[in-house]
């Protein structure tokens, strides 16, 4: 699918009478092949097998890789813990002060598990040819928070904005290089997860997230590669900042009013969301899930650029009956 024109694909979705669905649900694929989350996030072949199994069973609008927001932080040197059946997480703090930011080096793309994720994307792009394949990466502000500590970075942008911008630039430079490498695998786009930016005001989100993302978008997005910006921290207060990035699609979390979000998204860009991955996908009965889905479809029926999706990554756990 590397030659698929993504602008045409987006336009076709908007022109369709039926709403298409693109849930972020790679973790159920891990269950389907009898592997653990730890297996999938450390082995590109297992990761790919999970994506492929899902694509063969469900007619989703696109295939997505695992949304693992620790890959880039690990490449920088952060310590990661790997529970058997939960997503990995960063522990501790890699950068303890502003001096550490100055000394921080941008890592090569052979660090940590980056090669395994590139492998999974390459295999998926080669063999899943009936729909687009979307890679995943973290956003610059969320990465900075994982390296410097989330509470500390929120204070740093006010105490020492110069140091904060220095860190964000290094994070952004690495993400750009990673996105270019992902693009080279043949995938059709990337879902960039920037949830921490939802903790900021619209003005700060623009200054400390969107301006950096916009630079990445301008360098990687083209007719054959789409950037989907995900921000599940946005409750409606920073949609304007998200749209300022120029991404071709926006993915929203379950805390936002989807109709209000759609009002701010350009008519020629996709707006995706936002069924709750916990209370619905993981915990609800099939009847409750169906009603919530139909209610969301009814509420958004006047917006042809709406794409039905989960509000965030689908948690590991029993799910198929839903």
UniProtKB/TrEMBL annotation:
<dbReference type="Pfam" id="PF01208">
    <property type="entry name" value="URO-D"/>
</dbReference>
<keyword id="KW-0489">Methyltransferase</keyword>
<protein>
    <submittedName>
        <fullName>Methylcobamide--CoM methyltransferase</fullName>
    </submittedName>
</protein>
<dbReference type="InterPro" id="IPR000257">
    <property type="entry name" value="Uroporphyrinogen_deCOase"/>
</dbReference>
<dbReference type="InterPro" id="IPR052024">
    <property type="entry name" value="Methanogen_methyltrans"/>
</dbReference>
<dbReference type="GO" id="GO:0006779">
    <property type="term" value="P:porphyrin-containing compound biosynthetic process"/>
</dbReference>
<keyword id="KW-0808">Transferase</keyword>
<dbReference type="GO" id="GO:0008168">
    <property type="term" value="F:methyltransferase activity"/>
</dbReference>
<feature type="domain" description="Uroporphyrinogen decarboxylase (URO-D)">
    <location>
        <begin position="24"/>
        <end position="312"/>
    </location>
</feature>
<dbReference type="GO" id="GO:0004853">
    <property type="term" value="F:uroporphyrinogen decarboxylase activity"/>
</dbReference>
<dbReference type="GO" id="GO:0032259">
    <property type="term" value="P:methylation"/>
</dbReference>
<dbReference type="InterPro" id="IPR038071">
    <property type="entry name" value="UROD/MetE-like_sf"/>
</dbReference>
